[in-house]
Amino acid sequence: MATDSIPERNAAAARGRAAIALIGCNHRTAPVELRERVAFTPEQAVRAANELCKMGVIEEAVVVSTCNRSELYGVTSEASESAPSAMVSYFTDFHKLSPDELNGRLYRHAGPEAVRHLFRVASGIDSMLLGEAEILGQVREAYNRALENGSTGPVLNRLFQGALEVGKRVRAETEIGARPMSVALAGVKLAERVFGELKGHSALIVGAGAVAEQVVEHLRLRGIGELRVVNRSRARAEELARRVGGQAGEWSNFESLLDEPDIIVTSVSGSEHVLTRALLERAMAARSGRAIFVIDLGVPRNVDPDAEGLYNVYLFNIDHLGEIVEQNKKAREAELPRVETIVDEHVTKFLAWQSSLEAAGLLDAFRARLEAERRALLAAHFANADGISESERARFERLTEELIDRIVQLPSQRLRHARKLRRPLEGLAALRDFFGLDPSDREDES
Amino acid sequence: MKLSMDFAALGLYVASFIGYTANLYRDRRWMGRVATLLLILALVAHYYALLERSRVIHAIPYDDLYGSMSLFAWLVGVTYLGLETFHRQRAVGSLVVPFVIIWLAVAMSVAPAAASREPQANGALFALHITIGILAYAAFAISFLLSLIYLIQNRVLRHGKPGLAFWRFPALDVLERMSLSSVWVGLVALVIGTTLGFVWEHRLTHRFAMADPKVLVTLIVLVIYAVYLLIVRAPAWRGARAALLCVCNFAVVLFSYTIVNLYFTSFHRYF
């Protein structure tokens, strides 16, 4: 720590024994009904962080709240059992819940486990949809909000910056987020494999199922050109068309509607095929054989499976898409060991930083203790020695100061070396105890 | 003969291939940029290797298998770089660059030990005729590769289990457009190259060697690629059928470049 400035060292010393605590619940521990109730709006997140710091429960706070998790991250000056309990009480009171409602739903982590948890969250492997990318942005937002609010300090700053680094590295170095994981997205991505960019292309939505709506949403996000909706019920077609910004078509004109679109999404209930091979053959002739991409989301199937063999007709039913999603899921799961290795590496790095901070605090306390002993010793010696000159006094002062410098020099050098190694230092608590450097020890002595 | 620049070019092509493959699997823009930069450096080194050869024989390197193959490999690289810039697609680099590597490596393996003699035919017009003619072959080779990728991607899309590369290669529509651009380059180059050949020959002999098998096969190549350009405009032919036709067309180009050169023509031996 010899390279650090004095204010930095003081701050480090003050935070020497900082402990990270985390409480929260996520999609694994709590049902959606409960997650809805414990979600924090951005304003509530700021208020909660401020209140927790003001109450003295924790010194630093960040609230991470998404649709799948609500978590409080805090830093206490000492590793204590009471801080997480106080955080749980606050969490319960804030959302006006009874303790029974959260019984078994909340998890608590402290120290390395809390660090690992956040790094896993940021890397997307703790998400409901393995490897999803949105979580990294949500963690960044939560951190930036807390940073602007001033509820973070050196420990949480370092922790969240580390988490963002982990998230970026995981996405850069692994394939955890490379392939589509939902049926709707897989269908749209496959359409992109045929047409490239979907801007300027047109789509026809047949029926109004929930998955079809998801497909439409993905199509819209990709800037699909014309969007037409057709349904047996004209009213439902108009309603969906209004919602998605498309146009409703007449069911009676269904066959002629097939001439234009590049993508057809079917999601109609009923046992008969809505799109038969003969119908598609006529449509392909009318469109001069231009390629068409059909996503059949109906169960039973809406499109005659024989149509798959038609030239330039790309037909995918719910099972095809499900298989692709399953393959992609397995491919993402295969990346888990690589992600965990990156997480482990960063957890070790963070813990090494944290213990170097603690060691610096210990070293400063040790130096302060030696300095106090030196002054006391010299004061007692000079009080009993009447004939000692000023120059003699100054010589004693210099000699004893130099002695302390020499005593502290070796551990300072070793500490620097340990930081380069990026591994946590062990036995710091024992050293602190051994040299009696805790404030409580000094109180006992006095 | 000295091959130091060829080795340097080969090394850079290999590095570029690694970059393109890393970009394909990692999907990082900077990796793709590094791969392109390495390809440019490889092409520059390769150009100097060809220049060195030209200085020794005082002509475009066409009169032996080494020179002809090396020039062909260089023009494949240049044409691909043009396509990559025009279509902003790097994924197929991982398949085109190995083609260049193999071609150059084979060329280097048949390089003559001693400096060759100066070829009989020479001059600026003749140099242009050869260079543009080989450029046409290079462009057709790239359209062949792109069409092959199209057919594989199309098959995977319909029947297979899409792997990571499937999601990273360009869409079928983009592959088709790239192939089309390449065929246009090839066809225009072939027309210009053949015309220059006729002009050069007429200046020299005051006649046209229409009966030369190479000329006849070149005209067939012109016709089949013109047919491709015509039918690819019809929606009913667009897609896999057009890609298959493009692949078959290249068989005729290969026939012209190998069998015809080696066994049927007297003065188009290596180009």
Commentary on this structure:
The complex is a heterodimer of chains A (446) and B (271). Chain A has 446 residues and is α/β, with parallel strands linked by helices. Chain A has helices spanning 6-14, 32-37, 42-54, 82-94, 99-102, 112-123, 134-149, 154-173, 183-195, 210-221, 234-244, 254-257, 277-286, 318-334, 336-384, 390-421, 428-434, 439-445; strands at residues 19-26, 60-66, 69-76, 107-110, 203-207, 227-230, 247-249, 263-267, 292-296, 313-317. In chain A, the strands form 2 sheets. Chain A has a 6-stranded parallel beta sheet. In chain A, helix 6 (112-123) crosses helix 8 and helix 6 (112-123) packs antiparallel against helix 15 (336-384). The longest helix of chain A is centred in the last third of the chain and has 49 residues, at 336-384. Residues 1-15 of chain A have low confidence and may be disordered. Chain B is mostly helical and 271 residues long. Chain B folds into 2 domains: 1-112; 120-271, no CATH class. Chain B is built from 9 helices and no strands. The mean pLDDT of chain B is 86. The A-B interface holds A 172-173, 175, 178-179, 189-190, 192-196, 287-291, 308, 311-312, 314, 323-324, 327, 331 and B 25-28, 153, 157-158, 161-162, 164, 166-167, 170-174, 234-241.
Defining key terms:
heterodimer, A: 446 residues, alpha/beta, Beta Polymerase, domain 2, Rossmann fold, 3 domains, six-stranded parallel β-sheet, disordered N terminus, B: 271 residues, mainly alpha, 2 domains, 77% helix, 0% strand
